[in-house]
Design a protein that fits this description.
This protein is an alpha/beta fold. Helices cover 47% and strands 9% of the residues.
Length: 580
């Protein structure tokens, strides 16, 4: 029943599969065995007491299916009708379109400066050499106060914490205290300003978009976002029927609608003047992303094992993105075993509502390929890398050339320029595929890294990424302000993760959805609630500042906002009320 891509698969496998199909599974000693290693092939024959060789059909079938499974994952066998397991070439921008429209597409996406590989690498060589010079001059003149040399290419870097005025009261001082605000009231109030519920259209576009009951939609969003199942949501809610909530969930609560609703809240928040208080640089937006592990209480193909987080159980990771103003602009649920780095580009390319200029992750979100892609796509990548001093620095010349200059911080290895130049057209095609949204970056990277022998395009991207990574590492050594900004932004995403836990309280905080689609619906519903609360907090403090007549008190509120976080939820009631 499976359609294999015969043109882009190993012929030995295709030959064996066709033989199996043509003979309807009835095999004999003439069955093709070339896909197996020679020493394995010899085990397929067993001698009887008369010294006659017999073909072990059952063993062949076992090995046949095991090898097919592994070959599909590794790219030796490719499928025609699959999202994950097609030939890598089929994911990329059509080769004829690329050759014909390459320059137009590069111009359209403001990437013309990358058209010529030689010019690109020459420019980066100058930049990298200049960075090595600047870093080493500062060290030799003892101007880098936080750098401590411990031998050749062995050093430590300290980063002082960003000082806060501890005399300032936290924002909780001004938040409502007399009564908790019901979550439903938050959603209703934000909807009254933005009308985000209008984007929730019926799965069948022919239906009237306005025939949904708003209270049923809110109940569905809270049910998924707070991890309360729909049946339970109906039992603890007054004035609404389970049928209405199920109808809203089944026909209106799609990921597309939830993403659009989140984008509407984020765009509205951007218009508020108070948001600018969180900007470190008004012309740049510093974003960050991080994964948060959740147990899962049902069987799911999207779940994975991790003894560190789940013991003997399984779980998923909710990967989330935040900007400087605490707005959560993207989230996805991935297998707990997957490397988060593959999804960094997906979030940055997600939409036009939030434009990132510089992006930070922890070590799990970093790879040399991500350094390459972020640079080529127009983002600055600034991760916090564990064991920073163990990272290798690269350069265009040999280490001895830099040693002659008396440098203390030296490159370890030389960049393979020939490999980058050889694969440059494929690299550009890869980047334009992402820009054209033909395929997600995560899917491209997963398929690219699945091959048993590393793909040349992957190796070239990694080599190019080493140039960008080295440039960043040198800047990281040199600039204490950059290190502090990275820490500050990653603290925001960690605070947002605590916020998530507070809202996602039902079912012991364990995901109870089996499919990837429903897990993402729960994640985006949770994100909608978070963004609505953040927006409400912004409006609350905007109103407070507008009505405050005491200039000293107003100044104190502004300073507290700048020194703190708008992400507060202690004044929100997520749990409903007791009826006495």
């Amino acid at each position: 029943n499976v359609d294999f891509d015969t043109n882009n698969s190993q012929k030995s496998f295709i030959k064996a599969i066709e033989h199996y199909k043509n003979n309807n599974g009835k095999l004999n000693s003439s069955t093709p065995k070339d896909f197996l290693e020679k020493n394995i092939q010899s085990l397929l024959f067993q001698k009887d007491e008369n010294n006659t060789k017999h073909f072990r059909i059952s063993l062949y079938k076992i090995l046949f299916f095991i090898e097919i499974s592994q070959a599909i994952k590794s790219g030796k066998l490719n499928l025609l009708n699959s999202y994950r397991y097609r030939a890598f070439e089929s994911y990329l921008l059509d080769i004829n379109k690329f050759k014909k429209e390459k320059m137009d597409l590069l111009e359209q996406y403001n990437l013309l400066h990358f058209a010529n590989c030689k010019k690109t690498t020459t420019y980066l060589k100058e930049q990298l050499n200049s960075s090595f010079k600047d870093v080493n001059e500062k060290i030799s003149k003892e101007l880098n106060l936080y750098f401590h040399l411990k031998g050749e290419n062995s050093f430590t870097i300290t980063t002082p914490k960003v000082e806060k005025d501890i005399s300032l009261d936290p924002l909780t001082k001004w938040l409502p205290k007399d009564k908790f605000i019901p979550l439903i009231s938050i959603l209703e109030e934000i909807n009254s300003y933005i009308s985000f519920t209008k984007v929730f259209t019926h799965y069948s576009l022919a239906r009237n978009r306005n025939n949904i009951k708003i209270e049923a939609l809110f109940a569905s969003i809270i049910g998924y976002g707070c991890n309360i199942n729909i049946s339970r949501m109906a039992k603890i809610s007054k004035g609404i029927l389970e049928h209405d909530i199920e109808h809203a969930s089944n026909w209106y609560l799609s990921n597309e609608n939830l993403i659009e609703a989140n984008d509407k809240i984020i765009a509205f928040t951007e218009q508020l003047d108070i948001v600018k208080l969180f900007k470190n640089d008004k012309d740049k937006n510093h974003t960050a992303s991080d994964g948060q592990k959740f147990n899962i209480s049902v069987d799911s193909l999207n779940a994975g094992y991790s003894f560190k987080y789940f013991g003997l159980g399984r779980g998923v990771s909710r990967y989330m993105f935040i900007d400087e103003s605490h707005r959560l602009f993207y989230s996805t649920v991935i297998n707990a075993n997957e490397r988060e780095a593959a999804y960094v580009i997906d979030g940055l390319m997600h939409n036009d509502t939030i434009q990132s200029d510089i992006h930070s992750t922890d070590t799990f979100g970093y790879s040399e390929v991500v350094f390459a892609l972020t640079h080529l796509l127009g983002f600055s990548f600034a991760p916090r890398i564990k064991n920073f001093k163990e990272q290798q620095l690269y350069a265009f010349e040999a280490k001895k050339e830099y040693h002659k200059l008396g440098y203390k911080v030296l490159p370890i290895k030389q960049i393979n320029i020939e490999l980058i130049e050889e694969q440059w057209e494929n690299i550009l095609r890869f980047v334009l595929t992402i820009k054209e949204r033909e395929t997600t970056a995560s899917q491209l990277l997963k398929r690219l890294t699945s091959y048993p022998k590393q793909h040349k395009t992957y190796l070239a991207l990694r080599e190019f990424g080493r140039i960008i990574k080295t440039k960043f590492l040198l800047e990281y050594i040199d600039d204490v302000t950059l290190r502090q900004q990275i820490e500050k932004q990653l603290n925001k995403i960690e605070n947002a993760n605590k916020f998530s836990k507070a809202i996602f309280f039902g079912n012991n905080g364990e995901y109870m959805y089996a499919t990837k689609e429903e897990q993402d619906i729960a994640s985006n519903s949770l994100r909608l609630i978070q963004n609505a609360i953040i927006c409400w907090n912004y409006l609350y403090f905007s109103d407070k500042l507008a009505k405050e007549t005491d200039e000293n008190e107003k100044s104190l509120i502004i300073q507290s906002i700048q020194n703190g976080s708008i992400v507060h939820w202690q004044h929100i009631n997520f749990y409903g009320e007791y009826d006495f």
